[in-house]
Design a protein that fits this description.
The chain is α/β, with parallel strands linked by helices and 277 residues long. It is 27% helix and 18% strand.
Length: 277
């Protein structure tokens, strides 16, 4: 028996599932190739799994087993530090960067490509911040204009999905497969993280979904014993809610919510649930 609770984060929609006493998150990105939420759930109801729901049910199984034993899944698990995520580069987020710097963040990830000339102007002084490393996510939209700009390229740790085969800066492979890359992005929400085998550094990141899914991603990074700075504090790109308030809101260190399994016991029990199957 599967029960579902629909939620929104800003303008995005997702669903929590309760499966035999365990909980998981389903938060697709149709604009990046995932099936929409209603199709994900309809297929699940029919017994067909997608990469997203396959991973979700695996996390629900782990959560159920831990809740049954009355223990938290992140007990004794060391979760790596996280970068500070910037979804949109504008003047408001410039101020957030300086606030995050004061909190102790030294690794930043920013999504670019919506207005590259303006973004180049805004990011230029940020790349000069002392002892910072920058991860730039272009989602395949990088153009020669960026490479020709007068920027501190030494501060750039890698560029994610640059959209160019031949590229002079370190590349991180996320969705767009590339022939040469120096880092591999791992999203436990859709990737079979346990079977990852590579000699490249792995960067575990969330799927920018519900805080419950975020905790599952942090668990995966910790169990994998990832040593890199990861991207596990994505709740800060959304307005606070009862779940996200249980997580860290200052600095790059992870803080697990209280409770069994992936946590949030009382909050989950207080939600309204509908039968899916």
């Amino acid at each position: 028996m599967i029960h579902v609770h629909h939620y929104t984060l800003g303008d995005r929609e997702g669903a929590l599932l309760e499966v035999d006493g365990g909980y998981c998150d389903v938060h697709p990105w149709p604009e990046l190739g995932d099936l929409p939420l209603f199709k994900q759930l309809n297929l699940l109801k029919e017994g067909t799994l997608t990469p997203l729901t396959k991973q979700s049910l695996e996390f629900a199984r782990l959560d159920a087993a831990a809740r049954k034993k009355g223990r938290g899944l992140l007990e004794g698990v060391t979760v790596p530090q996280s970068h500070f995520l910037i979804k949109k580069l504008d003047q408001d987020t410039i101020n957030l960067v300086h606030q995050a710097f004061d909190e102790g963040f030294r690794t930043f990830k920013v999504k670019l490509g919506k207005d590259l000339p303006k973004e180049i102007t805004l990011i230029k002084p940020l790349l000069e911040l002392p002892q910072t490393r920058w991860r730039l996510d272009f989602n395949g939209s990088l153009c020669q204009e960026f490479l020709n700009a007068d920027l501190n390229f030494d501060a750039i740790e890698f560029c994610e999905d640059p959209g160019l085969d031949e590229f002079p800066l370190p590349v991180a492979w996320d969705r767009e497969e590339v022939s040469h890359y120096q880092y591999r992005i791992v999203k436990p929400a859709v990737d079979d993280w346990r079977s990852m085998r590579t000699n490249k550094p792995l960067i575990f990141t969330t799927y920018l979904g519900h805080p419950l899914g975020q905790v599952a991603d942090a668990y995966a990074a910790g169990v994998f014993q990832c040593k890199e700075v990861c991207g596990l504090l994505s709740h800060r790109v959304y307005a606070p809610n009862a779940f996200s308030e249980c997580l860290s809101w200052s600095g790059p260190e992870w803080r697990s919510p209280e409770g069994t399994g992936f946590g949030f016991d009382h909050l989950l029990e207080g939600l309204s649930w509908q039968s899916l199957t």
